[in-house]
Amino acid sequence: MNYKACVCNLCGTGCGQFLKTDGRKVFGVAPLIAHPVSKGKLCIRGWHANELLSTNERITTPLIRENGQLREASYEEAIALVVERMRQFDGAAGEIGILASARSSNEDSFALGRLAREVFGTTVRGIGAEAGHRKSMASLEHAFGYPGAHGSLTSIDKADYILVIGTDITRQNPVIGGNIHAAQRRGARVVTLSSSRTQIAKLSTKHFQQKPGTKGLLVNALAKALLAIRTANRERRANVDQMPGHTEYVASLRSISSVALERASGIRYEEIEEEAKFLEQAKSIVFLFSSGISGLDRPTIDAITNLALLTDRMDHEHSAVIPVAGISNLQGGFDMGVSGEPGNSVFKALAEPDSPIRALFVIDHDDGIIRDKERISKLDFVAYSCAYRNAFMDLAHVVFPLPAYNETDGTYTAADKRVQITRKNVDNPHGVLPGWALFQRLAVASGKAWGYQDAAGVFADIAAKVPGYADLSHELLGKGFGQHWNPKAFPNSRQRKFNAINIEYWESPTTPEFPFALMIGKAQHYWHQNNLMRKTIVPRREYDQTLWLYPQGYIEISPEDAANLKVRDKWLVNVCSSTGTCMKIAVKISPDVQNGTAYIPYFIKNMISDFLIPYENAYAAGEESVIPIKIQEA
């Protein structure tokens, strides 16, 4: 029995862990005490990764659908069939879509990108969890000159001031949440801005519980108050004043009305002014916000990056602006170029009935929700690759197995750009091809020779072609706890500039007939509805305990609203939207929700996802989404 170091593959924190293994099976997990981010901590998901890695629900051989049923096949037969079928479609015309995975290693994603371009000839692609991350990358690149986090997650440990916008980070990325709480105990000021009293909000020094849809407005108001302090003190920050967009930004900030701010957000400007004093005094500042699915909208992210620049503290070694990803290698997937381009994503192609898409190549779809399932089921051809059995197999004509993350070498890029390596530490008894090797076999069968011998060779190609990765290698990454990719590889990395903003005062879309503002997003149940967590025992038990209490799922409302509706906790109610979709669901009474609002975690049951999926704008807005609903006793 031995302990092998690796990187946890379950969220974008990038925690270090040891796997207890005899080389054939994983028996347990231990934390890696020396890791600079996790520092000997793991969340419940990381502690029970052995249950996932030891599940018997693995795909171990290629499968081909015949007469409606999947049968076992050889790699040669399955690869030949995929190549033959894909040749029938015109990738350049948008007939082939690629749906990548945010859990794939950098090596797998890079090779998939080559397969899409060089073999299938398509640019219609996307990552399953990318919804808000592209907006984060676009805003950060405009502000700092490169598409990635500014600074490191280790900055939390020594920062003077930490601002968490939106995300319930102690539940979604518990180790980061623990580090924030530890920072507060040593004296850092922790401020949260969220519509509900989240767990991190309860632990923070100051919580602004604003009305839905006004996070960006409040961040801009904080910037206005900060600017006013400097004006009163006659302090000139020349390096800030000279940044492109500064004049327009300041003019927009000065247009903010304190009366309109309070009416829209429920927060008095005087509170914001008091907070700005603490922000101005801080020498090092960390901004954290949720990215990926259920992330923030672009105006809110622009407000965050602008405020970060305005503080003039972003050159401090312990300052940072980090979009916190909920899935392990979302940042790496973007770096490797498999995310969907604006206006040309696979999701747009699947959502539009008249789009030309006819075939889909999918990697590792681990969510309980399959968006656009009806459209996918009608495609001419679907090829699917995954390590674990799940519902997406029912839609596939060909299925390829993939190894678990500890059965092959691979690198992963955490939310703060830290690139880390996991070495193969368990045998691959069925001879399952790593993703990069499978994609190379498909390329060879199509007449393209790449010449990769191992994952290190793929990474060498990444280092040669992907900005920021040039100084990295498997050998170097194996000597410590990874390294951040280099922002200086981007030509504009030293040219900071403000994003353009437009001050808007949010007005609730609710009406007398539909008086509640429904917010959607993630709760801890996100992890337990997800396919990987359903393969574990302890995390699944937590989720199932919730379903014992609320077997139909739940909608959170305030005690006052519950009293007005004359409903009690666990009572079933009918929830109907302004567009006519309805569902029956249990009430969960919570003092953490504001009057007139309601909250549903959309991963708790498929019936809820079916209710929400028609709201494409809600997915685009992420945490800022609001759907007008009415609630009636069932």
Report the span from N to C terminus.
56 Å
User: Ranges with pLDDT <50 over ≥5 residues?
Assistant: none
Kindly state the number of beta strands. Answer: 24
* Annotation field: number of helices: 25
Quaternary organization: single chain
Name the strands of the widest sheet in spatial order: 5-4-15-14-13-6-7
* pLDDT averaged over residues: 90
| Overall shape | globular
Q: Sheet bearing the most strands, described?
A: 7 strands, mixed
Helix content: 25-40%
The percentage of residues in β strands lies in 15-25%
The computed structural class is alpha/beta
- The radius of gyration over CA amounts to 24 Å
Protein name: 4Fe-4S Mo/W bis-MGD-type domain-containing protein
Pfam families: Molybdop_Fe4S4, Molybdopterin, Molydop_binding
Keywords: 4Fe-4S, Iron, Iron-sulfur, Metal-binding
Domain 4Fe-4S Mo/W bis-MGD-type: 1-57
Describe the 3D structure.
It comes from Chitiniphilus shinanonensis. InterPro entries: Asp_de-COase-like_dom_sf, MoPterin_dinucl-bd_dom, Mopterin_OxRdtase, Mopterin_OxRdtase_4Fe-4S_dom, Prok_molybdopt-oxidoreductase. This is 4Fe-4S Mo/W bis-MGD-type domain-containing protein. Keywords: 4Fe-4S, Iron, Iron-sulfur, Metal-binding. The chain is of the alpha/beta class. 34% of the residues lie in helices and 19% in strands. It has 25 helices and 24 strands. The strands form 5 sheets. A 7-stranded mixed β-sheet has the order 5-4-15-14-13-6-7. A 6-stranded mixed β-sheet has the order 20-22-21-24-19-23. Helix 4 runs parallel beside helix 18 and helix 4 crosses helix 19. The protein is globular. The model has no long low-confidence stretch (mean pLDDT 90).
